[in-house]
Amino acid sequence: MDETTRTDDDEISWRATPYRAPVLDSDRNRIGTAESLLADDNADIFHGLAVKLAHGGHLVEVPADSVTRITQSAIETSVAPSKVGELHPYSEEHWFHLGWGGLFRQRPEWKED
To answer: Using one digit for the tens of pLDDT, what is the confidence trace for 18-72?
Structure first.
């Protein structure tokens, strides 16, 4: 498919995840916005997302295995609505203390307009 026929609902790579895209639970309810990627860009490994919750506004981690689909319009997850409150709080130290330097990278093209 060429770029002229792509729609906002076409699946895209984690590398093209839109900054502050809506993040949806398994029932397609908006749970928050994508604030950063948790990934090793050089090794092409996607670990998940740091998500700012719509209710409460704190950052949580959504692991890659819970991300079911990424499009230009939203990020779909398998997180049940009843489990959103059980997502682990995001901790930058968690990623750096693992010794996997560079896991937390905000994509350079993610800039405020």
So the answer is: 989 999 999 999 999 999 888 887 788 889 999 999 998 899 999 999 999 999 9
- Predicted model pTM: 0.77
The residue among 61, 64, 65 whose CA lies nearest residue 50 is 61
Rounded distance, CA 70 to CA 14, Å?
A: 7
Report the amino acid identity of residue 25: D
**Domain chopping of the chain, boundaries:** 3-105
* Spatial separation of the C-alpha atoms in residues 61 and 100, rounded to whole Å: 17
For 33, phi then psi, to 5°, come to -130, 145
Instruction: Kindly report the CATH number that applies to the domain delimited by 3-105.
Output: 3.90.50.10
The angle formed by the CA atoms of residues 80, 81 and 87, to the nearest 5 degrees, is 75
Under 8 Å between Cβ of 104 and 96? yes
